[in-house]
Amino acid sequence: MKVISTVLKLSMAVVTIALLPVSVRAFPPAPHHVISGIVRDQYGNPVNDPSALVILQTPGGVRLANSIQPGLAPGVNYHLEVPMDAGNTIDLYEANALRTAASYKMYVVLGGITNTPIQMLNGYSQLGKPGGQTRLDLFLGTDSNGDGLPDEWQYAILAALGLGPDLSQIGPNGRAYPGGMTYYGSFIAGTYPFDPSDALVMRFVAVNGDSPVLEFNAINGRTYTVLGSTDMKQWVPVSFQLPADGVSPATRANIYVSGVQTIQVQALQPTTGPKLRFFKLLVQ
Q1: Residues 262 and 168 grouped into a single domain
Q2: pTM
Q3: What's the whole-number average pLDDT of the chain?
Q4: Do 182 and 209 have their domain in common?
Q5: Between vectors from CA 38 to CA 37 and to CA 42, what angle results, nearest 5°?
Q6: Phi-psi region of 233 (alpha: psi -120 to 50; beta: other; left: phi over 0)
Q7: Which domain holds residue 88?
Q8: Chain segment 60-113, per-residue pLDDT in tens
Q9: Residues 105, 64 contacting (CB under 8 angstroms)
């Protein structure tokens, strides 16, 4: 895993100014700090309810909120811009502005219920610097053993495998069968880790010129990106088109999927340099 200007034209003029010694103090506001990521429910599904709220709250009572926005960016369904104070004066420039290293917790209000994501169970996080960005994915549910996977999903998989209720049997890095995805990978991808036929697999379908047509099964609420390589060592994102879009299809960098469906993509080769020979799929 693992996975988001304005040009001003100035007219020229000649002016004469007098330079006087003055004392200048920086204005308190600083660039916002951005916190974004994806909220998933206790079964790994990205939350797609636009009425759901993601809330940042500090011990001092500062509260910022924004709604869930499905498919906002690859692997992102929420985005918070936190007002930052430069710290040059004693008072904050506005009541909800924060300073670097301020403590905060995140909450998710879904269906009228306020949830504490499992990433927030161990205490407060500290805010980064003005102008910075923090990636913070939030999983709902409970995590009694602190392994990062919701208990509810683990119990469902244990039951499907016919195993007892010992959560240690399903660790994030474990696999249900040799060569399969890790349990954490299956949680993110929305596949059944106990069923090889349900694995996240990309299949070669055809070739159009030097561009391969690839096919995979997509799961609701996920974003898929095609990666390509010439040597299976270094991988780069690959632009693609959807044959289903008809004549002159748009070129895409990724695709956000609603529902469960089979997707075909035509991977586009780079215009210069060696051709890509290997491809894989990134799901977020």
Answers
A1: no
A2: 0.85
A3: 90
A4: no
A5: 140
A6: alpha
A7: 30-139
A8: 999 999 999 999 999 999 999 999 998 888 788 788 899 999 999 999 999 999
A9: no
